[in-house]
Amino acid sequence: MNRSDLTLNGIGKYLAAAILLLFVLFVGVFAVRQAVSNYYSHIAVRDSSEELARFAIRWQPGNPNAYEALGTVLGRQGDEKGAAAGYEDAVDRRENDFRLWLRLGSARAELGDLAGARSAFQRAISLAPGYSRPRVELGTFLLEHSERDEAFRLFNEAAEREPALYPAMLEIATREFPRDAEKIESLITPKSFEGKRLSAIYLIGKGLVSGSVRRFLLSDDLPTEERARFVGLLIENKNFELAREVWGAAPEIPKELANGSIFDGSFEQTKRSDESGFGWMFDDDIESARILLEGKEVHSGSRAFKFVFQGHSNPDQWLLTQRILVKPNSSYELKAFARTNELVTAGLPFIGVYNGLDNQQLARTQRVESDESGWVELSVRFDTGKNRTIFVALARESCAQSPCPVFGELILDDFSLGEIETGR
Question: Are residues 302 and 194 located together in one domain of the fold?
Fold first, then answer.
């Protein structure tokens, strides 16, 4: 290699190094200017300062964040034209940012440029097809301009992507059509299980149970735990009739027993306490007592409910209870059969009838005497008044002493409840 080649080679290396240095310096300067511009953009928005926003633009005229900041500040000042211009400059510099298109759409809507607003919102949807927010914003815009059907189509698409939006979308529909459950149902149409679940919770809370909600609650697809939650929610919102129906639709509830006034009055199907709804409820851990569902001593069938008392217990505590659906302003007769084995207590048991709202006693049977031999029928007639639900409960009379001990056995079987015909 001759000297001239070496010289050229050396010059090339120096030139490359110089170009690299200039590039690094340029990148460094650009990065510094970018950082400073972003900093002042942030401060401008925080302080609502137009001056700082324009200062950020001067530091880096190509920074979309600076123009976004200017649009935000001018919008706060009521300068909608300036805000729209700021966002337009921002999207010119970062045209694939759906957030900027949403801001531009809102600014154009405020300015009265409806076609421009629609176009910006649609551009945001095309850039972020998997996101819910662009659809919500376009839907809101369309609803404000009387395009209801298209608005709710977009709301449904948004909520299917993000089911947590369903309550908010239903709130909008409820404002549009107050108290009209069927119309709301036609507007908000969840397809996913989670969407249906959230929609049902919202509508039950508003007292607006539509046909689709009813079908969802009564479907076999509803898991046991969810069914129990909905029964509780319906009871809480005093929709007792549907609560009983939903409870009775559970696969584990025998259909031949689901529609009776009292569920499983002979204890043939009861295996555990039913805290969720309308079955027998009892405390397996009741103080100083054991509970048995067994068939050694029965009035009929193959099982009866037995308490084996072994000491102190609270006489104010219901020992066995069931919530029952009744007709208001009607008369009923409650019957049950009981027997005792060596029962010793000053607070003898009885069956009480209580209203379903505040547990006030409506009526009670005679008490179960401790020296009864064989099965004894307990009965009481009562009027329901305005009540739509009652509790039938095994309780104890008060004692002169506290705690009130009880020893021995109490066995119950064959509960029944019948409506008394008017005029009898």
Answer: no
pLDDT at residue 27 tops 70: no
Integer Cα distance of 157 and 200 in angstroms? 18
In this predicted structure, the answer to whether residue 331 has a pLDDT above a threshold of 90 is: yes
Instruction: Say if residue 400 is in the same domain as residue 318.
Output: yes
320-325 and 361-364: which strand pairing? unpaired
Residues 296 and 400 in one domain: yes
Interhelix angle 64-76/50-59, nearest 10 degrees: 170
Q: Which of 106, 95, 169, 92 is nearest to 132 (CA)?
A: 169
Tokens coding 373:
């031999």
Q: What DSSP state is assigned to residue 219?
A: S
Residues of the chain above pLDDT 90, percent: 63
Distance CA 139, CA 175 (A): 15
- Does residue 313 contact residue 406 with C-beta atoms inside 8 Å? yes
Contact call for residues 389 and 288 (beta carbons, < 8 A): no
- What is the pLDDT confidence band of residue 24, given thresholds at 50, 70 and 90? very low
